Amino acid sequence: MNFSFVQISDHHLGETESQLMRGYSTAYAVRQVMRHIAKNVGKRIDFLISTGDLVNDPSAVSYRNFCDMFQLQVTSVAPGPALITLEGLQTFPMYFLPGNHDDRDQFFRHLFVDTPAMPLMNVSFQHKGVQFICLDFGAGDDAVAYPETLDYLERSLQAGLPSVILTHHHMVPMGNRWQDDYFLDKEKSEIFWNIVTQYQVQVLGVLSGHVHTTYEKVKRGIPVFGLRSTAPQPVFLDEPFFCLQPLHYRLVTIQDGLLTTRIFEVPL
User: Fold this and answer.
1) pLDDT tens digits for 231-254?
2) Nearest to residue 144, comparing CAs of 187, 203, 208, 207?
3) Residue-range domains of the chain with CATH
4) How many C-beta neighbours within 10 Å does residue 49 have?
5) Please, which residues bridge with residue 79 across strands?
6) Torsion angle of C-alpha atoms 17, 19, 20, 25, degrees rounded to 10
7) Burial readout 147-179 (b: 16 or more C-beta within 10 A, e: otherwise)
8) Three-state SS sequence of the chain
9) Residue ranges of the Calcineurin-like phosphoesterase domain (predicted)?
């Protein structure tokens, strides 16, 4: 059961590597992070996970640019692993979740050619006896706890395996109005936590993206982690205010049934 992997999130790539987002080069930032991963932890991790928002405007051209940049060898089964080659990582396994910016049809067409497009990508995979449950709360800014997503979560946990839950949308409040308004389905979000709490012993942690911010919280005894994006990052104000900060990726280690993490900071 002992292994490590890396989480990255929220890349918002454009139709070309030179395209900017708010005057910021998302492609340059991704390359910086991947180069740092390859140099510092690449030899001791089993795989990478991206928790969504691969592109900013979900056109076919943007996804082709994403696949070309990562030299992605498409696979048939979502969420992967697909093999990527980028900045020192050679044919390296990587899993992908869709985010609210990702068009589900384009996402599947370009990354998972033989998997029929799903309106919600609720899927799971196993690695060395640990189950990774990938939950989809939709393509809108506002997360929705769809009944099929909650049903999939409960059915997956009933398998009794130690589990890591992966989501794009954040599952705990951030403490500011404009981010926390993204999860409007408060009643069903409580159902999510009621299900997770019921299987608390086997849930090692919840990893998310979406808010472009690194955090570590505990809810109902379960560790919950978010991650600073490779795209522009906000500060905690009640209105969106983006700034330039060092990039983050999260090294996650599972050893003897315990999940621990370490944040690596990458200068721009």
Assistant:
1) 988 766 666 667 789 999 999 999
2) 187
3) 3-266 (3.60.21.10)
4) 26
5) none
6) 10
7) eebbebbeebbeeeebbbbbbbbbbbebebeeb
8) CCEEEEEECCCCECCCCCCCECCECHHHHHHHHHHHHHHHCHHHCCEEEECCCCECCCCHHHHHHHHHHCCCECECCCCCCEEEEECCEEEEEEEECCCCCCCHHHHHHHHECCCCCCCCCCEEEEECCEEEEEECCCCCCCECCCHHHHHHHHHHHCCCCCEEEEECCCCCCCCCHHHHCCECCHHHHHHHHHHHHHCHHHEEEEECCCCCCCEEEEECCEEEEECCCCCCEECCCCCCCEECCCEEEEEEEEECCEEEEEEEEECC
9) 4-213
Length of the chain: 268
- The pLDDT, as a whole number, for residue 141 is 74
For residue range 84-126, what is the model confidence (pLDDT) as tens digits? Answer: 999 999 999 999 999 999 999 999 999 998 899 999 999 999 9
CB 45 within 8 A of CB 91: no
pLDDT at 179: 64
